[in-house]
Write a structure and sequence with these properties.
Blueprint lengths: L6 H11 L13 H21 L4 H27 L1 H10 L6 H30 L8 H30 L16 H15 L8 H32 L3 H9 L19
């Protein structure tokens, strides 16, 4: 059962909640992303109640998805409203909305992707509804702890970054979690989705593994690409500062304690 019954309900919810991208293209991947994940979590709880296969692990996982989505979407919205520099960054990345057919393709892709990312929770509910016999909740609880850790890392990193930009607007964040990773918020994102994947290791069956891994690999790749874009922007903005160069050469770009310091080759011209 690769596509469980009522998946279309999740698709409608996801599509509605990420449709802000038609107003501003980047919202498909930012505010709409957070809202869609939160909405999918709520919808899964409602369906599990309707099917009579509601459980505490499902509730916990969906609450974490809700917290994650609302926190991320809310943070990005507030950041855009309050920070002129962040608005400029968004404008530089996408100066205007692309043609409508591109927006429609991105809308469909985003709506589907967010379901695929949350699929381990959805498969837990759907497989139990279909009569799955493995009732172990240990992977779900282990995954939930990892997800919570990811939320905490991402939240603290975002708060520290905002405080750092107020204290030193001329430099990137370099204190707190930023001593261990130059992109701890992206690392926290990876930790969150790792936990969600772990939560389904005893539930996923056959081709369901391909769907779940596809969502995980996609968000992993997006975070790596995001770290590369951030490094390129930092080189452009701070590359001539000795303090930044020492920091960048001694602090891992993404994963703490893993000595991968650069993903972008600096232009020496």
């Amino acid at each position: 059962m690769v596509i469980p019954p009522l998946t279309w309900v999740l698709l409608i919810v996801s599509a509605i909640l990420c449709a802000e991208g038609f107003y501003k293209f980047v919202y498909f991947m930012t505010i709409g992303y957070g809202l869609a994940v939160a909405g999918i979590g709520v919808t899964i709880v409602i369906i599990s109640l309707a099917w009579g296969c509601f459980s505490i692990p499902v509730l916990i996982l969906c609450i974490l998805a809700l917290i994650y989505g609302i926190r991320l979407g809310g943070f990005l919205l507030v950041r855009e409203l309050k920070s002129a520099a962040y608005r400029k960054t968004l404008t530089d990345q996408i100066s205007k909305n692309p043609p409508m057919f591109v927006m429609i393709i991105m809308w469909i892709f985003s709506a589907v992707l967010y379901i695929v990312q949350v699929s381990p929770i959805w498969y837990r509910v759907a497989n139990f509804h279909a009569g799955a016999t493995d009732k172990s909740v240990i992977p779900a609880y282990i995954g939930a702890v990892i997800m919570l850790l990811g939320i905490i890392i991402e939240s603290v990193a975002d708060q520290q970054k905002s405080a750092s930009k107020v204290a030193r607007p001329d430099m990137p964040a370099m204190t707190g979690l930023y001593k261990f990773s130059r992109c701890p918020n992206y690392f926290g994102e990876i930790v969150f989705w790792t936990g969600l994947l772990v939560s389904g290791i005893n539930i996923l069956q056959g081709w369901q593994w391909l769907i779940a891994l596809l969502g995980y690999v996609t968000i992993f790749a997006i975070m790596v690409k995001g770290a590369m874009r951030l490094e390129a922007r930092h080189i452009k903005n701070y590359g001539d500062k000795e303090e930044y160069r020492k920091y960048a050469d001694s602090t891992p770009i993404l994963f703490p304690f893993i000595p991968l310091y650069h993903m972008v080759k600096e232009d020496k011209k």
